[in-house]
Specification:
This protein has 10 helices and 10 strands. With 327 residues, the chain is an alpha/beta fold. A 5-stranded parallel β-sheet has the order 3-2-1-4-5, sandwiched between helices. Helix 1 crosses helix 2, helix 1 packs across helix 7 and helix 9 runs antiparallel to helix 10. It binds xanthosine-5'-monophosphate (XMP).
Length: 327
């Protein structure tokens, strides 16, 4: 990124659909001027930032955009399918979907150290993206979903916003259309671009995905327990009006088992931990006061619908002393 550029002082805060539409028109013109008839590559995770960048580029240069969605096997239930549905089926854009699930899970097998897990996921992501980029010809530009807090936090850009780490022989010019926007503005623009609410108002999701919620060495079975329990939690929070009210909520499956009783027989299964927190800046966090009957209902669903699980726990720890994630 060019030495930490500043948001122009004259730039109005984008708070309304009309302001978002104005921004979109300006960006379309700017993107066309920058890109001409060149080809642009984008790593599309399906998060709000990369999705907004993709939607802007589709409006500006259509098929000159090539998006790559890498499914590393650590996405939430339904996310990869949503990316394909929105960007290939509905917006008819050029989308390369890479099913790299086995590749990531094989590399992660037996690895319990959290930092090593993160390094493997980040490193493998760059390798998969690089392989796809090498198959393509004539790519001149690399689009990124950098947003203003990434610049303000400065130094190295957050890993999930940067496919930096690509080898030097990739001489791409960067395209960063939302680099002066704050997150709330990106969401307003996303809404004006017609992206689905599930994408625009997605809660924060760590780059290493469910990998940091499948504590310790990841196995396919325990990862499935994280994914299924997370889907139940999200469904119940949405049904009970907590979706826009709680900042971040998810489940964790630690790598130990305890005894229980299931179907009249003794079981030896994993616990699922529910985490639901509110925060302003993720530096500190408070625990949401979830109605007890809802917690009981979710417990019943998880223990009866998710294989390999016999207990559900609610994490009552604020940050500090806990972090939001467990790894
Ligand atoms: P912690 O666990 O440090 O998390 O309290 C603070 C916020 O950051 C998210 N998080 C990550 N985001 N890559 C990311 O892009 C990561 O490796 C990562 N680890 C944590 C976390 O979900 C929370 O919102």
């Amino acid at each position: 990124m060019a030495n930490n550029p500043k948001r122009p002082e004259s730039m109005e805060r984008i708070t309304t659909q009309a302001l978002a539409e104005e921004f979109i028109e300006e960006q379309i013109a700017a993107l066309r001027a920058q890109i001409g008839d060149g080809k642009v590559l984008l790593a599309l995770s399906g998060g709000v930032d990369s999705s907004v960048v993709a939607a802007l580029l589709i409006k500006a240069v259509g098929k000159q955009l090539v998006s790559v969605h890498v499914n590393h096997g650590l996405l939430r239930k339904g996310e990869a399918e949503q990316v394909v549905r929105v960007f290939r089926d509905e917006l008819k854009s050029n989308l390369i979907y890479v099913d790299a699930q086995d590749r990531f899970l094989d590399k992660l097998a037996g690895v319990a150290d959290p930092e090593t897990k993160r390094k493997i996921i980040g490193g493998e992501f760059i390798r998969v993206f690089e392989e796809e980029a090498r198959k393509l010809e004539g790519i001149k530009f690399l689009a990124q979903g950098t947003i203003y807090p990434d610049i303000l936090e400065s130094g190295p850009v957050k890993a999930h916003h940067n496919v930096g780490g690509l080898p030097d022989d990739f001489d791409f010019e960067l395209v960063e259309p939302i680099k002066f926007l704050f997150k709330d503005e990106v969401r307003v623009v996303g809404k004006a671009l017609g992206l689905p609410d599930g994408m625009v108002f997605r809660q924060p999701f760590p780059g290493p995905g469910l990998g940091v919620r499948c504590v310790g060495a990841i196995t396919r079975e325990r990862l499935a327990a994280v994914r299924e329990s997370d889907a139940i939690l999200r469904e119940e929070f949405a049904k009970n009006g907590l979706e826009g009210k709680v900042w971040q909520y998810f489940t964790i499956v630690p790598d130990f088992k305890s005894t229980g009783v299931k179907d009249g027989k003794r079981s030896f299964d994993w616990p699922v931990v529910i985490r639901a927190v509110n925060t302003r800046d993720a530096m500190t966090a408070t625990v949401e006061d979830i109605p007890f009957d809802l917690l009981q209902h979710i417990t019943k669903r998880i223990t009866s619908e998710v294989p390999g699980v016999n207990r559900v726990l609610y994490d009552l720890t604020p940050k500090p002393t806990g972090t939001i994630e467990w790894e």
